[in-house]
Every structure is written in C-alpha cells, then in structure tokens.
Amino acid sequence: MKRTLFSFAVLLLAAFNYASGQDLKLNDLEYFERQGVNVLVYNNLFTGGFNDEKNAGIELIHHGVRTAQGGAVRLSNTPEQWDLVPAISNRKVDPASKAIETGLRYKEYDFDSRVVVTAKGKGVEISVYLDKPIPKTLEGKAGFNLEFLPSQYWGKAYLMDGRPNRFPRYAVSNTVTKPNSEKIKQFKGYVTSDDRGTGKFIDPLPLETGRNFLLAPDEPERLVKITSPDADLMLFDGRMLAQNGWFVVRSLLPAGKTGKVLTWTVEPNAIKGWTREPNIGFSQVGYIPSQPKLAVIELDKKDKPLAKASLYKIGGDGNAAEVFSGKIIPWGNYYKYNYVKFDFSSVKNPGIYYIQYGKFKTNNFLIDNSVYDKITDATSDVWIPIHMDHMFVNEAYRVWHGEPFKEGYRQAPPNTDHFDLHSQGPTTDTKYKALELIPGLNVGGFFDAGDFDIETGSNISVVQNFVQTWEYFKPLRDETFVSQKQRYVDLHRPDGTPDMLQFIEHGTLNLVAQAENIGHMSQTLSNSVLDNYHHLGDAASLTDGLPYNPNLRPYEVAPDGQSSGVKDDMWAFTSRNPGLDLSAATMFAAASRALKGYNDDLSARALQQSKRLLKEATELLAGKPKNDARREGPSADIATNLQLYVSTGEQQYINKFQELLWPGLDRNLNFDLLTALNAIPHMDAAYKEKLRPYVVKYNDYIKGLEKDNPYGVPIGLGNWAGNGGIQSFGTTVCFANKYFPDIVDGSHAFKVANWLFGCHPYHNYSFVATVGATRPKAVFYGNNRADFSAIPGNVAPGVLFRKPDHFENYDDWPFLWGENEGTIAGNTGYLIFGSAFKNLVK
C-alpha cells in the first residue's frame, strides 16, 4: 500500500511541476507558440474527399512532434475517416485579443458553431459558442473533440480527477451496440462497417470521465493538462472502431443552450530550456569514395550552431578514431528550423564511419564502391511481386495473400460516386448493363498500394516504368517464380526468366484485358462497398468469391453455391476518359516492344490497342473543350507518338512527336524534358542540338534549388509528400547527364539519393524499407499497416508539409498515407531512378 501511495505522489508531483517560462504568443504565422509548444488553429482544414485524415482542426506540435489534432465540434465519440467533418465557414485572427475564431458548419444538419481559441498564460482557452441551440437530432451527439496520437501516449500514465491509469498499448476498452437509426449519417451516405444483418452499430464507451485530465504526468515532453469548468471530459480509444483511430478527449455540448456553451483550458507542458535535438541528415546507405559527401544538420532556431563536426572511423579492433574535422557551413532558415552543412567529401578511404556533432553521434554508415549495388533489390524482389493481383503469393513459410477476386468484376451502375474519388457517369459507356459481369478482367495487374484495387492510371505508369527499366538497363535479375497458368508467385525462387519481363507481362495482361473487353480503359477496378475497401488482411478474403444475388437474404448462400447475399463484389468504373486512353496507348506501344520474343501474342495485342486508342482518344479529345477534366493535354500525346514511332518506325508518329514536343517544352520544361531526353537514341544529331538550350535552362533550375532549400532538391508542399517528384527529378538529372554531361553535372543525382536514404527534414531514416545501413524507416502505410511493420522495398512518400511551417514523417504511426504509403507507381518510379542512378555511378 505504501508503494502505491508513493507512486501516486510521484505522478502528482510530476504533473504539477510545470516548467516556468514564457506565455503562449500569437505569432505572425497565425498560430500560438512558446518554446517547445505550437498550437495551430485551423491552419489545416478538413477535406471533403477522405474527410477526417487526422491532419486538421486544432493541432498541437509538442516538443517537435505533432501529437494532437482534430480539435473541432464533432458528431461522434470516435470519428472515423468517412464521418462528417465541419466545413470552415470563416476564420478570424485577432492579434489584439490573442484569439482565433473559426466558424464551423454541418450543412447536413443545418448546425453552426463557433470555436474561439485564446492564449491564456502557458496554454489556451477553447470556447464553443452557439447562436442557436443544437438541433434535436444532435442532442447527446454533438461535442467538442481533441485527438491524441496513440503511439506517443500508449504505455504512459494519465490522471483523471486524480485517479491514475495508463493509456493502453492495444485497443481493449468497452463498447455497446445501438440501433442504426441512431447512427449519425456518414459522408455521401457511405457506411464504414458491416453490421452483419443486426441493424446495430458499435459505439465505444469512455475509458474515464472527469473534469481535470492530465495526460502523461510521467513524461514531461508529452504532459498536457485539460480542464473544463462546465462539462465532463471523456477519454475514448478510437482504435476500437478503426486501427487508425486516435485517443479522443471529448465533452458533449449541452442541449437547449446558446452563447458560450463549453470551455476548456488546455495547457501543454514546455520543458524549461528545451531545444530540439539536431537532426543530422546523411545517407544511411553510405557513400562511394569519389562522390560529394555533405551532411545537412537541422537545428532549432534557438540552438547556436557549433563551429565544427567530426568524422570517426571504426577500426578492425572495434575502436573509433577521428579521421576528419571540418567547419560547419551556415545555410540559413527554412520554414521552422535553421540549417547548416558539414562537408566531408575529402574522406575517401573505404570503411565504417559515423558523424559526431557536439555530443550527438549518428549511427554508422559505409564508404565503399559497392554501397549502391543493391538499393533496388528489395523493391524488385519483394515489394513488387507481393503486389501482383489475381495471384497466390508465397514467401518461404509465409503466404502474403491468396488468389484474390476469382469472381471477377461487375459493371458499376450509372451515377455512382465512389469513396476513392472515382465516379460512374450517367451511362456505363460500355455494352454492359449495371452489375453485369465484364469477362476477362480478373487477370494480371498490381494492387495500387495500401488497398487492393487496380488504379488504372497507376498501373499504366507502372508498366511504362518497367519497360523503361528493361530497355535502358536490361536487368536480368531472376529471383521470382511467376506462373500465369498456376496463378502462383513464389519469392526468392528463380524460374529462368528475368523478373522484369514477367512484371511487364503481368501489368499488360490486365490493361489489355480492359481495352479489349471494356473497349477502353476503366478508371479503376475497385470495391463496391466501403466496409471492405479498408480491409486489412489477406486480399483473397476481402470478398467471399461469389457474386451478389439480391434475391437472397443477407449473407445467405444460394443452394447451388454459385452466389450469395453478401454485398462485397468488385466493380469496374468505366466512364470513358480519352486522356487515360492516350496514356494507355503510350504504355501499350512501349510494352509491345518489350514483350516481343517473350509473349508475342500479348505483344501484338498491345500494339493493336495502342494504335486504336490513340486514334479514338485523339478524335474524342478534339471534340472536347480545353478545360474538360478528361483532357490530359498534349504531353501524353507527345509520349504516345514517340513510343509508337519506336515500336513501328512509322514516320507519321515521329512527325507528330516533333510537332507537339517543342511547344510542350516551352510550356512545361520540367514535365516534358524527360520524354525529350528519352527520344535522343531514336533521333538525329540535329534533334539533340535543338534540345540543348532546353537542357541549359533546366540546369539553371537545378542550380536554383540550392538557394530554394538546404537539400537542393524539389521539395513538395502539397497534401501528399514529394518523394515521387524528387525521384522523377533525379531520373531526369541522370539522363540529362548521360546525354549532356557538359551541361548537367551528375553530382546532382547524389542529392536525390542522399534525400531518399536519410538526408532530409524531421529525421534521418532511410525512406526505403530495409534499405539503410542501420536505420531505415520501420513502419509504413501498406496493407499490413495494422501490424506496425513494413514490406521490404517500400518507398515512403516522404516528409509531409503541414501548414504553415512544419514537416513531419511519423515512424511510429503508419496510418497517415500522405507520408507513409508506398504506391505501385511511386515504387516503380524508384526502381527506374535507382537503375539510372546505379548506371550513373558506374
């Protein structure tokens, strides 16, 4: 008993031992800050597509990590991804009163509220105002929520009104079921769960309830105090409904009241004198002796840069000795942090090294001529074959998935909006009726990413990437057994055929089947219902293997065993997009070359579809207005004509290519230059000379990146992190250096490799799963994300920019797809960059 009381006393002491220091200030970037604490108020907004992406509302960046988000009036205890989110009707910043006011509206319920966040000492006061009482249908449902990142809190203690407890590592709290009539509607009428015919939904119960809540009193970096004078604080575990749920602190709004109806005080602890530890960015893979070797060190703006850093070499006896000491080179501020550089290019002796900056020491890395030899092996040997659709995929003792979707794909009904942002238009654009089986589609293709659909646009890019890798670099690597007849894949089992050819074949099989059986390219082959779209597990168990029969009772199987009452079928969304057809024509032309002599029948079919789709798509595009969303523009047409010329040698295609290319380069040099470079082996000397000034202009762009950011690469600032664009940049640099070495220096490609393998903001882990000497990223958003693991060879999207000044890449929470989801298009883009880069290194 004495030990229990002593432990409780220690927790209380820690909880109330707040560091002295400055109050929160409202800064010029329109968020509240003090050293170690940033409180953002609707700097990032909820979206109408995937809705709650865990990236919006009131957010807390606590000692450098975004640990809380989603602060808003919400309509359920633990909101899911497709639950309704409030539209932001207005946002007002008042520096004089140190307050930010935001209007929130749920148009579905004609419900408006205002949230006012005001600096109050070392924390903020959050107040909710209502001009009209809550609608009757939302009484007991509308409340204010703030969500906390589970991976930063599980295992830590909390105090609710002085009662100690601990955040659970796994979701194990209690739930109840309620009639579906009481469930708040979800976005566009979607339903995220299968009630198995019970007519009831699951509703989590609170872990704790009280008025004074202390999160992590045992961890000063994560300690937050929340109090409310007029409403209970309830703690919920959002993972009871969805693996990507967060811990939710929630207070219900009172019924029948107006004016200020709820007040919270939120005080995040700030450790006295805290500064963020330096992030020493370097290549986890290592360096070849002759390349530039530049570490980029990311520093807290209050951290005074040191004068020098050192390089230590680990000897054969296990002892480390300093072999180089160099000056720190200032670069300057970039968004939230200050950056300096450490150049150790003069160190060329092969060996094992680490960087020492003050008291901070990196993990070890290699300098050796072989460090880049295997950078693509995990991607080609493991990640890509695991994502082969319509195949049973085995690895040693492990089955990655059985053969999915044997029952095929049905025609999506007209006027159907899809939760993955696709839609079926007013007609099917095919000869098939709604829900009719479209024959021949359950073959080939690759899972898009963390889900099991075939995104046609991505698969087109994938095959094109495979073909380019094959034609430019002829990788003869054979580590995968692929049998289309058996529909079976076995990893690490050579079968006598280069894997790259088999990948090209597998992707082309599905896309040719679309062109032949649909008549054009589908938008996607995907789920018909949302509750199996977010399926985590074996892809073969996503559906029951039987077509849905509306004449059967729910979940009933027909007496002949050929149909069921389960709504789980896969649909083909077939509204015609001539721009997509044009992209497919490009890919088919290229694939036909690669497949010649290996699968001649498929090669001929691909070329036939290329010519047909080019003709039909060109005619369709000519009849559409220039602002039509289905126009992909002339850039796709440029590439299509080039590929058809290379495949057929027909003059008409190269004439059209030249006609379109030069205006395209004038409009968008960065987008079209790689296509122009790809044409050089097939053109005369005059073509290359005409291209030269464009390469000079591109080189000016490359040099400008050194002034744009401390890493010298094109960093993306959108809602999907920018590794894809950086890889494309690196590939362009490699080919520009190949053909114009007097203009573009190959050293710029090393900056891309450094970025991918650890030299980037937020942390210094390699973005490629398992590729990195000591520290690649550990968790990714894949179809195994609930296991908090990674599929080897996966490439993360990268550091995600959070407005107005924060980069992040979680390595303990895989569920944010914009920073952690490796896609089939992105990973094959890495494959071609890695191949081009290895070629440049040689």
Automatic annotation (TrEMBL):
It is an enzyme of class 3 (hydrolase). The keyword Membrane does not apply. The active site is at 812, 821. Gene3D superfamilies: 1.50.10.10, Immunoglobulins (2.60.40.10). Residues 277-359 form the Cellulase Ig-like domain. It comes from the Bacteria. This is Endoglucanase. InterPro entries: 6-hairpin_glycosidase_sf, 6hp_glycosidase-like_sf, Cellulase_Ig-like, Glyco_hydro_9, Glyco_hydro_9_Asp/Glu_AS, Ig-like_fold, Ig_E-set. Its EC number is 3.2.1.4.
